[in-house]
Amino acid sequence: MKVKTFPGELIGETIIVVESNNPALKGISGKVIDETQSTIKIESEGKIKTLLKNIITFKITGKGMAIEGRTIIKRPEDRLKG
Questions:
Q1: Structural domain count of the chain
Q2: Which domain range does residue 38 map to?
Q3: Which residues pair with residue 31 across a beta bridge?
Q4: DSSP letters spanning 52-78
Q5: Which of 1, 22, 30, 72 could in theory staple to 44 by disulfide, Cβ–Cβ 3.0 to 4.6 A?
Q6: For residue 55, what is the domain's CATH number?
Q7: Which residues does 34 contact at the CB level (< 8 Å), separation at least 6?
Q8: Do the strands 56-60 and 66-68 form a parallel or antiparallel pair, or are they unpaired?
């Protein structure tokens, strides 16, 4: 599995957690509705779930790459600036 950083916007993307330090999070998927420096909020099965970036690796549906959350721990607007 290729793990990359992701410089783009996550809000609106559908993700699935492929690895996590917390086994209960593995396999959770949903649409990203918000992102902070250290979290990603997704809407999954009608509920809002907050995922800590530093403990997950996720895939964006249809993009075919895995992203380690710890590689994007910064404010989204700072990440987008480069």
A1: 1
A2: 3-81
A3: 14, 43
A4: EGGGEEEEETTT--EEEGGGG-S-HHH
A5: 30
A6: 2.30.30.210
A7: 11, 40, 41
A8: antiparallel
pLDDT digits (tens), the chain, 82 positions:
555 666 678 999 999 999 999 999 999 999 999 999 999 999 999 999 999 999 999 999 988 789 999 988 877 777 666 5
Stated as kind and residue range, the H or E segment containing 80 is helix 76-81
The residues near 42 (Cβ < 8 Å, ≥ 6 apart) are 15, 28, 29, 30, 31, 32, 33, 48, 49, 51
Q: How many CA atoms lie within 13 A of 53 on its CB side?
A: 21
71 φ/ψ angles, rounded to the nearest 5 degrees: -80, -10
Measured between alpha carbons, how far is 36 from 74 in angstroms, rounded to an integer?
Answer: 8
In the numeric block, the tokens 């996550």 are attached to 10
Task: Give the length of the chain.
Answer: 82
